[in-house]
Amino acid sequence: MSFETMTDDQCWAVMQRRDKAFDGRFIVGVLTTGIYCRPSCAARQPLRANVRFFRDGADARAAGLRPCKRCLPDDVGRDEAAVLAAIKAIQTSEEPLALADLAARTGYSPTHFQRVFTRHTGLSPAAYARALREERAREALSEAGRVTDAIYDAGFSGPSRFYENMEGRMGMTASAWANGGKGATIHWAVVPTSLGDMLVAATGKGVCRLSFAEGREALEERFPAAELVEGGAEFAGLLKQVVDAVETPALGFDHIPIDVKGTAFQEAVWRELRKIPAGETRSYAEIAAAVGKPKAVRAAGSANGANNVAVLIPCHRVVRSDGSLGGYAYGLPIKEELLKREAR
Fold this sequence. Notes:
Layout: H1 8-16, E1 27-30, E2 35-37, E3 51-54, H2 57-62, E4 66-67, H3 76-92, H4 99-106, H5 110-121, H6 125-143, H7 147-153, H8 159-166, H9 174-178, E5 185-193, E6 196-202, E7 207-212, H10 216-222, E8 227-230, H11 233-247, H12 264-275, E9 282-283, H13 284-290, H14 297-305, E10 318-319, H15 332-343
């Protein structure tokens, strides 16, 4: 959502919640003090009648305002350039880069740069670098004939470093990931719900598939070499929690473990989806902005659609900018019903 497409009421709502995702997308001018700020400025908020919104600092200065010394609104462009430079350095470096090194390249102190980077991307520099290597590892494991080759192709110094970094992150072992789930055990069941038959499948780490109107064939397609076990006593307890989450989603389901894999960007989108409170929605543009990629609205939509765990990763809470429901993999009636239940 760009400034040109936003109403004053929408800008005011962003300012009221101090949404950092909109920093750099418009400027807040306070006519009584003669200053302009970022939407996220932590200063005491003025009365609505004293506020005017501008596209950028230049427009605000042309109106006779001066930049806030607390939030430094004119530094937004500099911050974005610094983050992009750091991302490029991380992507092209063969060795991990220390925070101090990245900060020195941008002219910021390490502490300040860490805050700037995290605000723009949703991840610290170190976490971003790990996510990038994990993404490369997944790609290499999918393409390489041998796990060892994939480990080195992804930029790890050796197998021990790879398994140390990936422990608990990919769910299945590296060999299983490269071979369609070979060696992994997935428990599953199709259960009736008020929204129709629902497929639930889980590894030992959590739910890896939740969908409607699907069965064993869908699992075989995703995990052709895994051992698929229908039901099971240990699985029964988890299955009940999932069914309860679907029938009464407003009660929350953050306690239910999930085991999902995607690119660094996809996983960032999925994390943002899980942050949306029950009863609320976000637009694709807001999700893209929240993960630090405000121009990647279409990519955010694709990541939303790539979600393998419906409801628990609540992609149904994402709507179009005009408020209409948009699409849903399992049909708009299910999406509409989930939103109604959460709003109660």
